[in-house]
Amino acid sequence: MNTNQHTDVDDVLWSAIGDPMRRRMLDILLTDGAATATSLGERLPVTRQAVAKHLVVLDRAGLVHAISAGREKQFRVDQAQLARAVAQLADVTAAWDSRLLRIKRIAESIQRSKDAGKRSNTSPKPNKPNKSDKPNKSDKPNKSDKPTKGTLQ
After folding, report:
1. What is the pLDDT of residues 108-150, one digit of tens each?
2. How many angstroms separate the Cα of 57 from the Cα of each of 7, 23, 65, 75, 119?
């Protein structure tokens, strides 16, 4: 199997699993073991025709197989294909966990650099006079501030 075929199968598989109604159908089939389109239609808020269309999608993805039982078909989950989907999901989860861990480490490194920069900027600086250090008019001596005889300054 070439890579493109493998990807196509995966896309079909994940497209089938991506629909909430099809996931509910898989849940019912896993719980009950098998069901007909009619019995699924009775348990779901969709018509039997809609169930049949969903079953076609699941069958194309290899997730269910139909077994003839009289006039009707019983649908069962293909355990091997479901296991394959679970394994792929585990691989995707692991890949994203790894990516997110790298992003977290980068973000923490950036934060540590910023924190270190802030600490180095908080060292004492030589005092520069600021506006409040300049004398203002009220600081200038006036006539009443002149020393008088007998007082020490």
Report:
1. 999 999 888 888 776 555 566 556 555 555 555 555 555 555 5
2. 17, 12, 11, 13, 61
d(CA 59, CA 112): 53
**Region of 16 on the Ramachandran plot (φ > 0 left; ψ -120 to 50 alpha; else beta):** alpha
What is residue 120's predicted lDDT score, i.e. its pLDDT?
76
Please give the torsion angle defined by the CA atoms of residues 43, 45, 50 and 53, in that order, rounded to the nearest 10 degrees. Answer: -60
Radius of gyration of the chain, Cα coordinates, nearest whole angstrom: 38
- Report the CATH fold assignment for 9-78: Arc Repressor Mutant, subunit A (1.10.10)
Domain extents in the chain: 9-78
pLDDT at res. 6: 46
| pTM for this prediction | 0.61
Q: What backbone phi and psi angles, to 5 degrees, belong to 95?
A: -65, -45
Taking the C-alpha atoms of residue 16 and residue 13, their distance in angstroms, rounded to an integer, is 5
Confidence of residue 4 (pLDDT cuts 50, 70, 90): very low
